[in-house]
Design goal:
Helices cover 24% and strands 25% of the residues. The protein is of the alpha/beta class. It has one domain: Rossmann fold (3-Layer(aba) Sandwich). The strands form two sheets. Strands 2-1-3-4-11-10-9-6-7 form a nine-stranded mixed β-sheet, with helices on both faces. It has a two-stranded antiparallel sheet with strand order 5-8. It is globular.
């Protein structure tokens, strides 16, 4: 049975259909979760996609984290459910306290839209369990506030806990320790700035997002197989 992936839609999200098409291409079911609903229904995993939730008029994700759906996402994550935040979704997850640190404006105050190399640093996450440590994946980025920052204490926790999921081969935005993606202590919540859903075919420049999203669907399938 195909895992059911819920994709959260905020006013200003613009990557929800990209995520849904990628999920369906890999054999999963995908459905929209409206930000104003307080329930996730019967989904097996949740994706918070990219875009500009609520226009990013305060801080990216700062308003979205108060949407009714986020309470359900927090509870889902606390119960071990797989949660993935991509770009703006990563920002939302940090604002909601599901991941540590914050995203600030890129070094040089420049919007970035290009393809970068990502090195897989751990397979102990819902996004990389089908990948190989040391693999370099070519995945697009598309952000102005993707510069990951955190305190020295949090950085040490991420390093010592094997919680840096992906690092930039060549840091495009100034992120501390070249961090492109991280996971929580439970390893079921991952946030990353690059867009794996835009790297699904060599015809579009890269298929290197496939092992990442296959990992996420595998995690969702494991969740679906658990007793209710």
């Amino acid at each position: 049975m195909a895992p059911r992936i819920g994709v959260v839609l905020f006013p200003g999200s613009n990557c929800e259909h990209d995520v849904m098409e990628a999920v369906r291409a890999l054999g999963g079911d995908a459905e929209i979760l409206w930000h104003g609903d307080a329930s996730l229904g019967q989904v097996d995993a949740v994706v918070v996609p990219g875009g500009f939730a609520h226009g990013d008029y305060l801080r990216p994700g700062a308003i979205a984290r108060f949407s009714p759906v986020m309470g359900a996402v927090v509870d889902f994550a606390a119960n071990g459910g797989p949660v993935l935040g991509i770009c703006n979704g990563f920002q939302v997850l940090t604002e909601a306290g599901l991941l540590p640190g914050a995203l600030q404006k890129n070094r040089g105050l420049k919007f970035l839209c290009t393809t970068v190399g990502l090195r897989v640093e751990t397979t102990a996450s819902v996004l990389t369990n089908q990948a190989t440590v040391g693999d370099v994946l070519r995945v697009p980025i598309n952000h102005f506030e993707g510069n990951y920052t955190c305190s020295p204490e949090v950085l040490e926790e991420l390093r010592s806990g094997d919680r840096v999921v992906l690092r930039y081969v060549e840091n495009p935005n100034g992120s501390v320790d070249d961090i492109a993606g991280i996971t929580n202590e439970g390893r079921n919540v991952v946030g990353l700035m690059p867009h794996p859903e835009r790297a699904m075919s060599d015809l579009l420049g890269s298929a290197d997002g496939v092992p990442l999203l296959e990992s996420f669907l595998s995690s969702a399938s494991e969740r679906a197989a658990q007793p209710a």
